[in-house]
Amino acid sequence: MVMLKDPSKKYRRFKPLDIPDRQWPTKTIDKVPRWLATDLRDGNQSLVDPMDGEQKWRYFQMLVKLGYKEIEVSFPSSGATDYDFTRRLVTTPGVVPDDVWLQVLSPCRKELIRRTVDSLKGSKKAVLHLYLATSPCFQQIVFGMSNEQSKALAVECTKYARSITKDDPNSGVEEWAYEFSPETFSDSNMDFVLDVCEAVKAAWEPSEQHPIIFNLPATVEMSTPNVYADQIEFFCRNVTEREKICVSLHPHNDRGCAVAAAELAQMAGADRVEGTLFGNGERTGNVDLVTLALNLYTQGIHPGIDFSDLNSVIDIVETSNKIPIHPRQPYGGQLVVCAFSGSHQDAIKKGFQAREKSNATREDPWVMPYLPLDPEDIGRTYEAIIRVNSQSGKGGVAWIIKRTLELDLPRGLQIAFSKIVQRETDMLGRELLPNEIKELFVEAYHLNRNPRFGLVDYNITTDRSASPHPAGDTTQKPQQQTPGKTAPSRNLRRKFSGVIEIDGHEHHVEGVGNGALSALAAALKNLGIDLDIADYKEHSIERRGGGEGVKGRDTQAATFIECTASGQAQKVWGVGIHEDVVQSSLFALLSAASSFLSSRPSTPVPFRPKRSNTLDMEPGSPLSGLRNELNGAPKSGPDAVAKLEAHVEKGEQINGTGKENAEAS
Ligand SMILES: CC(=O)SCCNC(=O)CCNC(=O)[C@H](O)C(C)(C)COP(=O)(O)OP(=O)(O)OC[C@H]1O[C@@H](n2cnc3c(N)ncnc32)[C@H](O)[C@@H]1OP(=O)(O)O
Ligand SMILES: CC(C)C(=O)C(=O)O
Predict the structure, then answer these.
(1) DSSP string computed for 542-569
(2) How many Cα atoms within 13 Å fall on the side-chain side of residue 119?
(3) What is the per-residue pLDDT for 544?
(4) Residue of 51, 103, 143, 252 with the most ligand 1 atoms within 8 Å of its CB, for mutation
């Protein structure tokens, strides 16, 4: 069997109503409709395994907690589960709040109506809901009834219902309402629907205070949503005593337009919407009440339903229905607050940065690329927003590092680290989780343990030798000095002397520079590791109490240093984190040095101490070649380094015992 070449004979086009002066297209939705949740009836009847009493019980309580005031709880005449559940609701004190209406459904069959009404005895507010087909297809095929017979049955059952509900002082229910659904309204002749509804209305005799509910279902969605809106507008305009009627919608989703149909039909005059959470229901489902409510919310209208903790709702819906919420389901789907692609992540990250920068409060206007709703408003976390796979770029990766380690990576480091992430995602062929990205960063920049260099002990002192060209520092121009006078304090030079552990061996090293960082760079140069500082950034990290990833006190300094090896194009980044800003920068330089050595094609061992405080390499070893290469033309670091040196200016001497801190991250 194949699709028909010409389906026009088999499937006839829907004929829209002719309403040239239709009003709904220029209307907007500016008020919240009455909601009816039919999860426990229409939703439940479509499940492979309908809910048991306990599941219904829990679901009902959730609906009440969310704020639903009208809940269709059962089809009591279907059997013991629904009947007993209804009885349990009615007879358990305190479960049904006084302002909540319990709605129950029955076909137009007297014995079933009787049983349905009986199930409600003892309740405060109850809606009896009857349905009967008005569409030619159903009348002819299912019932074998003419229009007259259908109308007569509708009237007869309404009268009977009235006699055992609102007209019966012993009905046992404090307040009755009545709902009538002309089944497959959307496929019915509108004049006939009106005719039946007028007759039903006359039989029930509603008032403005106690209106009748005409629920107009798109039992099967058969046309574009504008056609449904036309039908609703036609009904609203032509039915008499409109003020005594609540016009209710019940859209199904066969063409995937139930939400649109419900929204346009509200513009066309409807007062009430029946649907289910996340759209469970017959075939493609009922209209999704979550989407409708949050669509309103994102237009600045509170829907009266509280989805602050949408994840808990999802939990109950999924376990009760035994159907997972689709990952792309509006608002609730796992992937709808996620971006994988680089340009989306970049835009979202910039959006959040702009919001932070403007000190926006939670209530300030939401202007965010790609995200129509602040995920926080529905209890979803920012962590879920940006996820990283092979389609991601630096922005998303930087976001994760910001969220997990509180580090604001400089742009260059973002680019460098995202290449590492890209390699990993390509290799694994899957998404990397935030924790994995964090671990990758910690490892790549040696935040837990520097595999090559450990700062064991050090002193930063003023270099009193006043030599214009201290050993190892060829980056500085000679200073003008008057013999017999000390240099002005702003020109004081620093001497790094300390113990650095290299590949498990401790070595005393020294170097002099304009500040602590350049002094360490000079000391490293004495080891043949001649690195120029090409970029330097630092920021403080305010710990919000025991954040994971980096141990420490409340405030720490994070330093990012980009280095080039003299005469080399290759650049490496180093990262250091420590309570002390100077030590943080020293760690960053050693982190870069370690990356640099590790990135060389061969391992630079062995080192051999030449004198007690300097090191050299075996002649002919890979490092000695490197040293020869690096000894070319050292350059001074950029201005940013001066910022760090200013910190050092504040104290004459900085001492540190780095070993334990070198382990810190
Ligand atoms: C669009 C909707 O969602 S409507 C709600 C549908 N929900 C359900 O059907 C769930 C609960 N249903 C049930 O438990 C059963 O179907 C019952 C108790 C209603 C009826 O059970 P049965 O008597 O065994 O009938 P069965 O289910 O086989 O067929 C339905 C019968 O109801 C009739 N019927 C269907 N709709 C209606 C209606 N609105 N009013 C009166 N009779 C109706 C059918 O024509 C059929 O009658 P028939 O046996 O004379 O041919
Ligand atoms: C009973 C009615 C309202 C129904 O469920 C439908 O038509 O889909």
Answers:
(1) E--SS-SSS--SSEEEEEEEEEEETT--
(2) 30
(3) 53
(4) 143
For domain 453-476+490-662, give the fold.
Double Stranded RNA Binding Domain (3.30.160)
Q: What is the mean pLDDT of residues 371-382?
A: 92
pLDDT of 125 over the 50 cut: yes
Residue 109 in contact with ligand 1 by CB distance below 6 A: yes
Q: CA–CA distance from 120 to each of 89, 98, 163, 261 (Å)?
A: 9, 14, 15, 32
d(CA 385, CA 397) in angstroms, rounded, equals 12
Whether 333 lines ligand 1, by a CB cut-off of 6 Å, is no
Q: Which ligand is in closest contact with the Cα of 116?
A: 1
CA of 215 to the centre of ligand 2 (A): 8
Comparing 65-69, 265-269, 502-506, 636-640, which segment has the lowest mean pLDDT?
Answer: 636-640
| Both tokens assigned to 72 | 């269709």
CATH assignment of 31-321? 3.20.20.70
Return the residue whose CA atom lies nearest to atom 4 of ligand 2: 219
Strands 453-462 and 654-656, bridge-based pairing: antiparallel
Provide the angle, in degrees to the nearest 10, between the axes of the packed helices 434-444 and 411-428: 120
Q: Which of 105, 101, 107 is nearest to 89 (CA)?
A: 101
Q: How far is CA 306 from the centre of its chain?
A: 17
- The yes-or-no verdict on residue 482 having pLDDT over 50 is no
DSSP 312-371: HHHHHHHHHHT-PPPTTSTTTSTTTT-B-SHHHHHHHHHHHHHHHHTT--TTS----TT-
Pocket of ligand 2 (CB under 6 A): 42, 105, 131, 181, 183, 215, 217, 219, 250, 252
Question: Average pLDDT, stretch 118-123?
Answer: 98
Predicted confidence at residue 601, as pLDDT, reads 54
Stretch 483-494: mean pLDDT:
61
Token digits of residue 144: 């074998």
